[in-house]
Every structure is written in structure tokens, then in C-alpha cells.
Amino acid sequence: MLLRTTRRLSSFSRTAALEGKLARREASAAIQGKEDAPKLSRADAIEGRLARREAAALLQGAAEASSLTRAEMIEGRLARREAAALVQSLEASPRPNLSRMIYTQTPGSTTCLEKSWLKPHCTIICSGSDQPTKQEIPTDVLKASKYVSDLTKQTSKVGELRSAIADGSMTEADVYAEIGEVCNGSKPGREGDELIVVDLTGTGAQDAAIGQVAWEKMG
User: Fold this and answer.
1) What is the tally of structural domains in the chain?
2) pLDDT grade, residue 143 (50/70/90)?
3) 169 and 77 in one domain?
4) Residues 81, 86, 89, 92, Cα dihedral to 10°
5) How does DSSP classify residue 95?
6) Please, what is the angle between helix 70-92 and helix 42-60, to 10°?
7) Is residue 110 located within the same domain as residue 214?
8) Half-sphere exposure in the Cβ direction for 186 (13 Å, CA)
9) Backbone angles phi, psi at 163, to 5 degrees
10) Domain ends where: 92, 114, 133?
11) Is residue 26 a contact partner of residue 44, using CB atoms and an 8 Å limit?
């Protein structure tokens, strides 16, 4: 009977159940503050969201799936609650020093990281700020970095540089290079363990050039 029931549940895989169990264990570690909690990554948050959604789908379909066992329904409820706790815990207490490379693409209505979270040799590629109202990166991070723009005259108006200029942290003279200068070898990129910020606001000429290179490489 259980075997037949499992086979009929094609919309809910055993993988989803295992993800729910994993999310529950990791949520417990995060909530209890165990030593391994700082090792949780954004990938765990995504796992948690997946488990929560799949558990929710399981519960929503329970009325139609009369073959669902009581144990499976309880497992779904536990996975949803504890995965939600994991996600909330990670979002409330971001884990520092997790990556050497960070790519930001947010609405830019508020900064999304702090200097104390970063590895000394981290590279941040930020592309969420493209309007005068947006800012993803705190100005103390910009000031401490080897700052590279895609087009300085543009980033000073609509990119991250705009905020640093506004509060006096930086001027256009503090820009290390434009990305084209690094790409053509006029200026070196990484030279050691320095913090690097690459501020991308988008330029049509660069997009066209990149597209041409990609076309030629693929052709």
C-alpha cells in the first residue's frame, strides 16, 4: 500500500523530502547557534525556500491526494516551518567572509552588505545601481577598495560612486581605473590581496564589443 502510494505521488519527489530534512537540521543549527552555523551559505537559504515551497505544495494538494499518509503530511508541515525559520535566521544574520567573489544585482533601495562581512581580498561586482536613487554598496567599502568603473562620468552620476562623492568619501580622482583600461592592459587588475569593487552601470558600446567578441569566439 505504501509503495503504491509513493508511486502515485509523482508531484512530490523523494528529493523534496530529503531537502526538507536537510533544511530542518540546518535550521536547528542556525537557531541554536551551534559552531557550524556560520558555515551556512546562501545556498542553504535557497534549499530552505525550495523545501518550503515543495512542502507547501504537498499540503495544498493534500485534499486531492487522498493517498497521502499522515506521516508525509506531518513531515511536510515540519519542513515548511523549519525551512522558514532557516531562511529568516540567515536573512536576519548574514554570514560574513563567505566568498572571494560577490555579485550584487538588487533593486538598490538599500545597501546589501557591510565591510565587516568581507574577506580582505574580496572582489565585488555591483550592477544594481543605475539611477541616482540607488545604492547597493556602503561608501566605506568603496573608499577602502580598488574602485573600477565601467565609465566614470556615468558611475559618478548614477552608480555607486555617486553616493561616495555625495558624502565626501571619494572623488572622481580616487577611481583606480575604468574597466576598459584593465581589459586592454593599460592598468593591472588584481595585484595582491586588495579589496576590489567593479561598478557596472551599463554602456552600450561595451555591450556591443562584448557581444562581438562572444560571437567571434562561438563562431
Assistant:
1) 2
2) very high
3) no
4) -100
5) P
6) 150
7) yes
8) 9
9) -65, -40
10) 92
11) yes
Closest listed residue to residue 133, CA positions, set 159, 152, 155: 159
Residue 174 burial class via C-beta count within 10 angstroms: exposed 0-12, middle 13-18, buried 19 and up: middle
Residue 34 confidence (pLDDT): 47
Best CA proximity match to 170, nearest among 190, 141, 191:
141
The H-assigned helical ranges of the chain are 2-8, 14-32, 42-60, 70-92, 139-144, 152-158, 160-166, 179-183, 204-218
pLDDT at 5: 41
Cell readout for 116 is 565587516
Burial classification of residue 27, based on how many CB atoms lie within 10 Å of its CB (0-12 exposed, 13-18 middle, 19 or more buried):
buried
Residue 90 has phi, psi (to 5 degrees) of: -65, -40
Q: Quote the mean pLDDT of the chain.
A: 76
Q: What angle do CA 208, 209, 213 make, to 5 degrees?
A: 115
Query: If pLDDT is split at 50, 70 and 90, which confidence band does 63 have?
Result: very low
CA 133 – CA 179 distance, rounded (Å) = 23
Q: pLDDT category, 173, cuts 50, 70, 90?
A: very high
Q: Are residues 106 and 147 in the same domain?
A: yes
How far is Cα 48 from Cα 85, in angstroms, rounded to an integer?
9
At residue 102's C-alpha, the angle toward residues 207 and 91, to 5°, is 125
